[in-house]
Structure formats: structure tokens, C-alpha cells
Write a structure and sequence with these properties.
Layout (H helix, E strand, L loop, with lengths): L1 H15 L2 H9 L3 H33 L3 H22 L3 H14 L4 H11 L5 H35 L3 H11 L1 H17 L4
Length: about 200
């Protein structure tokens, strides 16, 4: 659960933090228009997506033990695919659609991951479990994601020029494959565990 959440955060923050420069460099938006676009996709749509996904993951967990974590694995694959499609898009209208899909799935991991931690951790260790989740996701995921995207973009700039940001975003979006694998493995273990 922790590994999947850290990788999800790494990918999400690596893509999300570079969206304004991406929209400005690749699709030639002004800073104001790029900012509003990011606010709507990453703010409004991410909030709505998180709420809807919370209901869906609860429903899946009721249908099958580990369903919540399987839903997180599917969300990671969906988010990664949307991010890669966004990075590859040459057409602004199409990029906007992929950005909206990416935004809707950007923050869905937190609620179900914390619910899974609550279900696994013994009652006396739940505070530590939640604190560890927050520290790992914030320090490693949110701390390294934007740095890796920027460093990769700079490294690729001599070859790709202004499109280096697209390539870097695509690479960071693909990290969701690792998150999906971690969540699928966690779902498998979740099904075999005894209640706390």
C-alpha cells in the first residue's frame, strides 16, 4: 500500500506540477489561461473524481475483499494512460480531454489507501500507519516527482527542445505502472489476511 501510494504520488506530482509550463511551452497558452486550465482540471475535477472514486472503491470492497486496492491499481493505470496520452498529444483540444481525465484520477489514491491502512494496522498502531503514509507520500512522492520531471526535461532539452517537457511528463506518468503492480500485489495479500 505504501509503495503504491508513494509511486502514485511521485507520478501525480511529477506530472501535475509541470502542467502550467507544459501548456505554455507545448500548446502556447498564456500563463493566465494555463493557470485557469490547471485549476479546473486539477482542482475541481480532482475533487469530484476523488469523491466518486471513494464511493466506487467502497462498493468494490463490499463485493470482493481487496476490491478497494484493485480499484487503486486500475486507477493508477488509468491515470498513467491519461498522462501519457496528454504528453503525446499535439492537438490542444485532445490534450484538454486527456488532462481532464488525468485530473479526475489524480488524487483518488489517498482515501482508499488510508482506509486500507486503517483496516490492516492494529488499533494501537493506526496513528503511526497514517503518519508513515503522509511522510512517505509527501517527502518521497511530492518531493521527488517535480524534481525528477524537471531534471529529465533539462536532460532531454538538447535533443527534444521545447518538447522535452512532454517526454518528461510521459516518463513520470508511466511510473503509475509500478503503482498499479504494487496495488495489485497488496490486493492479493489483502484477500489472504486475517481481520485485525
Amino acid at each position: 500500500i505504501y509503495c503504491g501510494s508513494v509511486l502514485y504520488t511521485l507520478s501525480m506530482s511529477g506530472v501535475g506540477s509541470w502542467m502550467v509550463p507544459y501548456l505554455m511551452r507545448v500548446h502556447h497558452l498564456s500563463v493566465a489561461t494555463a493557470g485557469v486550465t490547471v485549476a479546473l482540471a486539477f482542482g475541481l475535477l480532482a475533487t469530484l473524481g476523488s469523491i466518486a472514486f471513494g464511493f466506487a472503491s467502497d462498493w468494490l470492497e463490499q463485493k470482493r475483499k481487496g476490491g478497494m486496492l484493485t480499484a487503486l491499481a486500475i486507477a493508477a493505470l488509468f491515470n498513467g494512460a491519461a498522462g501519457i496520452a496528454l504528453a503525446l498529444s499535439q492537438n490542444f483540444s485532445l490534450a484538454l480531454v486527456f488532462f481532464a481525465l488525468w485530473g479526475m484520477s489524480a488524487l483518488v489514491y489517498s482515501g482508499p489507501a488510508n482506509a486500507a491502512i486503517a483496516g490492516i494496522a492494529p488499533e494501537r498502531a493506526r496513528g503511526i500507519g497514517f503518519a508513515l503514509f503522509a511522510v512517505l507520500c509527501n517527502l518521497i512522492g511530492s518531493g521527488l516527482g517535480p524534481l525528477l520531471t524537471g531534471a529529465l526535461s533539462d536532460w532531454l532539452a538538447p535533443v527534444l527542445g521545447g518538447r522535452s517537457i512532454s517526454a518528461a511528463i510521459g516518463v513520470l506518468a508511466s511510473v503509475q505502472i509500478g503503482a498499479a503492480i504494487a496495488f495489485f500485489l497488496a490486493a492479493h495479500k489483502w484477500r489472504g489476511r486475517q481481520p485485525v
